[in-house]
Amino acid sequence: MSMIRLNNRQLHIVLGVLVIASILIGGLLVISKDESVIVHGELSTLDNISDGWVASYETLDETTWRQFGNTNDINAKWNITEVLNLPNTFKVSQENEVMLSHKIPDFNEEKLYLVFTSKGQQVEIRADNNVIYEMTDEEISFPYHIVSVDYQYRNGNLTFKVRNDNDNRVSIGEVKIGTYTELMSDAFRENGGFVIFGIFLIIVSIGLFVICVFIKTKKADRNKKLMLIYSSFEAFLTGLLFIVHSRIFRIVINWEMINYYIRSCMFLIVGVSHLIVVRCLIRRKKILTVVDIGVAFNCIMFVSVMVLQWFGLLTFDTIYIICLSLLGIEILVYTLLLGSASYDYRQHEGIPVFIANILLVIAGVIELILYITGSSKVYAGLPLIAGCFMYFIIIWNYGLNRAAFVDASKETEDNNISIIREQVIEELNPNLLFASFKSLQNMIKAESENSTKMIYYISVYLMDNIKAMNNRGDIISFDEELEHIMAYLQLQKMRNNNLSFVVEAKVRGFKVPRNSLEPMVENAVKYGVGGKSNRGNVVVRTYERRDGYAIQIIDDGIGFDPSRLKKQSPTALKNLCALLEEKCMAKTEIISKEGKGTVITAVLPMIDNELM
Hints:
The protein has 18 helices and 19 strands. The protein has a 6-stranded antiparallel β-sheet with strand order 3-2-5-10-7-8. The chain has a 5-stranded mixed β-sheet with strand order 14-16-17-19-18. The chain has a 4-stranded antiparallel β-sheet with strand order 1-12-6-9. α6 packs antiparallel against α7.
């Protein structure tokens, strides 16, 4: 599991490949489209012509034959003719068919549209003995169908020939008829809210993406608006999915198979984009790996279902159900993982997004219950719309606040840059430098071999302090910051033999803000050890934990009360911790006891450090 780790570039490539592959395969389907394929959809308020159908078929039910059959004709045994209403189910001989006849209403339009429901049945429709529709193998599994009837067949005879090759039961649902305008208006009444909400998501997502483009941040701070960018992309895809899922789109596109294909692909792509949004707020290494596995699994599923369909092993409606189920399971599982990461590891910034995902899961469960109980048509997807609306509102509000905070921080920093420069100049620590130069002079006079080392440490310390004057807070490697720390400690050690220090850098492959750790070490030496007659020990440690890279600065000095920390200068301990939290999304902790010493711990999340 630990081997599956994706960076931002790889995630973008995954999304791009899925989108491009979906478009290319969809294009091949369109090129190969049979123009005789009929529109499919579901309507509920057209004129109902389900009454008064004449049915002729060979029955297996002797009671039905005695009631409706011609008992005087021995050769016609089990063949019956009856007048009935739809929907209805007929018990027929194996592979036998049912002939249903009805009169076509008079109309003045160029075309009328015949709507009926049937799944698993082979259907052929004739108008005045002319075939106007013959169901293809792909269409057998589709439940709803719409067939156009030309003006020339008005007042003519309409015949349905229905057959079930796999069973001795033939079923046919209600039959309705109406104009194209009635088709569209009924479709809009049924789930026009999908189209409206989809357009809303697309417009807002585009607006948010433009805002992200114009929010100016330092290179080190760009990761803070990544979640807003990814959630905008997710909202854009979700808006398209709502539009595609509407009956209006299914009527306009005029081909149910490609509609099922588009929805299936978009379910997988939306699933990947959702995982990327969740990924932005997970720091625990193992959970991060599980998210990457989910992204990889979506890609595998995409390839698998396309191959299976290509060889005819899966129908498009089956693929649709698989992809829809996969999306629902993913949202549920990774919501629980996000909750675990937020609460178990005190990542409070992930709690709003966890709540947003919970609302989305609740909406999905309500929608599933309504579907099972047969009430989904009444509410027309309102729970799902409400859940997605609340989800994106929370996500966008969190992302905008985070991005705006970054921008406001930069503006405040620019406005006070002159003050900060003056403070950094004071941090050159002239007392230490003058004392070091005095020690160097004595070493040279005594022809000490340590004079060369002294010159090196003074130059490194002075050079790093000068860099901090204009580049304070810039992201650098830990090795560069460690060099600054070592120079300071060596200078202090050469002046004070009672000072002992240990550096245990078990891990170094991460980044920190410039001049963020060295001042902490200075505080430990100056105030901690210095308060005990300059006698004491300082330890600088780094190691890897499950939730990130840990840095510890320990001294056995006089200690202090952490509640009395103040923001007196950029090198004040409280400001240094705030710098790590802002730039690196670090978790900082200060433990100090008077007379015992101080332990400062900072944990830098791996994912945010990689983004930097």
